[in-house]
Amino acid sequence: MSESSDPHAGQEPPALARLEEITAASGFGMPSDRLTGTLLATLAASKPDGRLLELGTGTGLATSWLLHGMDATAHLTSIDNDAAMQ
Questions:
Q1: CA distance 55 to 6
Q2: Cα dihedral 16, 80, 28, 39 sign
Q3: Is residue 45 classed as helix, strand or coil in its secondary structure?
């Protein structure tokens, strides 16, 4: 997907900095890095009106990237079986 067709290209999710702070403070050991996040946003943007599923929400870093790439009609379901992350 070219930058001209992705309105979020080169941008970060608005909540990213705060989620990174929360993740660092929690000691969560499997956060998505920024390169992975940009890939997730691009993949989400490539599915207008998409139905996306995230398994393993964690602290929400990847979730924020997916939401950032999604259009207004797409839907995301995110599930985590770790009670500490719910």
A1: 25
A2: negative
A3: helix
Residues of the chain with pLDDT under 70: 1-9, 86
Structure token pair of residue 43: 């993949």
pTM: 0.82
Task: Give strand pairing partners of 9.
Answer: none
Q: Where are the domains of the chain?
A: 32-86
Contact partners, residue 77, CB within 8 Å, separation at least 6: 51, 52, 53, 54
Structure tokens at 70: 């999604």
Contact 29, 57 (CB under 8 A): no
